[in-house]
Write a structure and sequence with these properties.
Elements lengths: L20 H8 L3 E5 L2 E4 L1 H20 L2 E3 L5 E3 H5 L10 E3 L9 E3 L4 H9 L10 E10 L14 E11 L2 H21 L5 E5 L9 E7 L5 E6 L5 E3 L46 E16 L1 H5 L3 E3 L5 E3 L1 E8 H11 L1 E2 L2 E2 L10 E5 L6 H9 L4 E4 L5 H11 L3 E5 L7 E5 L5 E4 L1 H8 L1
Parallel strand pairs: 3-7, 9-12, 19-20, 19-21
Antiparallel strand pairs: 1-2, 4-6, 5-6, 7-8, 8-16, 9-10, 10-13, 11-12, 11-13, 13-16, 14-15, 17-18, 21-22, 22-23
The protein binds one RNA strand of 74 nucleotides through strand 8, strand 13, strand 16 and helix 9.
Length: about 425
RNA sequence: CGGGCUGUAGUGUAACGGUAGCACGAGUCCUUUGGGAGGAUUUAGUCCCGGUUCAAAUCCGGGCAGCCCGACCA
């Protein structure tokens, strides 16, 4: 894409009244536009990042058998009445003009909707297990939207739901999803800590969150320095300075640690006894969560199956969420410098940022890059070198290519996260970027 | 939902109760071109409603909005 045609522009100054780094950098760069507090438009650059994140999530969800679908954003009252969640305050009630009472809510979660759908198709143990997910806008009536994209009233979420014939089967899948989540966050360039937590409005059981340590985070977690075992402060009995309670190899699992948790960290498998590492307190951003739902929703919608003996049972369920905007904002929070964002290659809006300086024409290189299938943003505008460099740094595209009278037939290549550049032939540059 | 702070061109900011100014941006023209270039010229603003006053961006009341703290929360 040619930058001269990009309708958004970067701003030199931070937006007023915005302290969260992700909001400042993403708004300045023209990745997002704030329409209202906690409500954002994703502009072309930001939307490309979201698509990259969505694609990574899709690949990992599909890899564990997730079937993608798409459910309504308008959820009829009857669904939430079935579980007594109509009155939960996080929802926005909606009604048509002229109707007195709200008969719908803007979907803030979809357990009920999907469970009802599934109940029309599932009848035998042979139909289980399976999992389905969607990537969709969720609406939550946040009393206080804050921290840029981190807590919004409207946000893109991937929600996966799984359906099982037994608790055992569910638990196996739960671990599978946890692994998929680890891959997703790693691929997005995030170091997420698997954290034991509470379940809020979704379940009375313990759940797990994926937390990325960051000052701006609104959660507090206790993390073991050694094995990375972590608990959310909301439910934890730990304190900073405590010794890690995890029993390694799971042979001495304490009551506080749910089954399966002892394999949270590969490091934990190398030792035969208690971990004993020091516990640290950290602020963290919750980028994903996984919930056991038990039979709460299947009971509400009479979702049953018959086993081998013809006996009826309720389906055991789990739900698993990732906030896409929150992932994007978290990447910005943990990957930046004074000049701007440093996108990991996996989620960057473009792979290369080509700048032409001093009236040089970069169009032939631009075409070659495009022909080679490399996503490139070409800054073909008539601006000073300093301005182009500064904007390029702010946008944070991983590879910067410069053509100018100085570079002759070659092209100067620099990575966003490195200081030095080198001038190479165009062929060489294409090879580097492949 | 409680508390605090703040609302002035597109953005960031100034103005004692008395002429709304500056910078950046944007438009046009010329000159420039390796770390946010220079000149000329144009553009555009006091959140809303009410009150006090000869006079309100400024003081008062009420809304609305934004940010931050708390409560709440995927």
């Amino acid at each position: 894409m040619k930058q001269s045609q990009l309708f958004t522009k970067v701003s030199r100054q931070d937006p007023k009244d915005e302290t969260a780094l992700n909001a400042r950098l993403l708004e300045r760069g023209g990745f997002v536009y704030k329409n209202s507090a906690g409500i954002y438009s994703y502009l072309p650059l930001g939307w490309r990042v979201m698509q990259k994140i969505a694609q990574i999530i899709r690949e990992e969800m599909n890899a564990i058998g997730g079937q993608e679908l798409f459910m309504p954003a308008l959820v009829e009252k009857k669904y939430l009445d079935a579980t007594g969640r109509w009155s939960v305050e996080v929802g926005y009630e909606v009604h048509g003009k002229g109707e007195k009472a709200a008969n719908f809510t803007l979907g803030w979660t979809h357990e009920e909707v999907l469970t009802e759908i599934v109940s029309k198709y599932i009848s035998s143990y042979k139909d289980l297990p399976f999992a389905a997910y969607q990537i969709q806008t969720k609406f939550r009536n946040e009393p206080r939207a804050k921290s840029g994209l981190l807590r919004g009233r409207e946000f893109m979420m991937k929600d996966l739901y799984s359906f099982h014939a037994s608790e055992d089967d569910f638990e196996k899948y739960y671990e599978k999803v946890a692994d998929a989540y680890r891959k997703i966050f790693e691929r997005c360039g995030l170091k997420a800590v698997y954290t034991l937590a509470g379940g809020g409005a979704f379940t009375a059981k313990h759940t797990h969150e994926f937390q990325v340590p960051a000052e701006v985070g609104e959660d507090t977690i206790f993390v073991c320095e050694k094995c990375e075992y972590a608990e959310n402060k909301e439910i934890s009995k730990l304190q900073e300075g405590d010794r890690c309670p995890v029993s390694l190899r799971g042979s001495e699992t304490t009551a506080a640690i749910p089954k399966g948790h002892e394999i949270a960290s590969p490091a934990a498998r190398n030792d035969g006894k208690r971990c004993g590492g020091r516990i640290y307190e950290n602020k963290a951003i919750e980028v994903g969560n996984i919930f056991p739902l038990g039979t709460k929703y299947s009971e509400a919608f009479d979702l049953k199956f018959r086993d081998e003996n013809g006996k009826e049972h309720f389906v055991v369920m789990g739900s698993y969420g990732i906030g896409l905007g929150r992932v994007m904002a978290t990447v910005v929070e943990v990957s930046n410098d004074k000049a701007g964002i440093i996108w990991p290659e996996s989620v960057a809006p473009f792979r290369a940022h080509l700048l032409s300086l001093g009236g040089a024409d970069g169009s032939s290189i631009y075409e070659k890059l495009q022909k080679a299938g490399i996503e490139v943003l070409y800054d073909d505008r008539d601006l000073s070198a300093g301005e182009k460099f500064a904007e390029s740094d702010l946008l944070g595209i991983p590879w910067r290519l410069v053509v100018s009278p100085k570079t002759g037939d070659g092209v100067e290549v620099k990575r966003r996260n490195e200081g030095k550049s080198k001038t190479v032939s165009v062929t060489e540059a294409l090879k580097l970027l492949k």
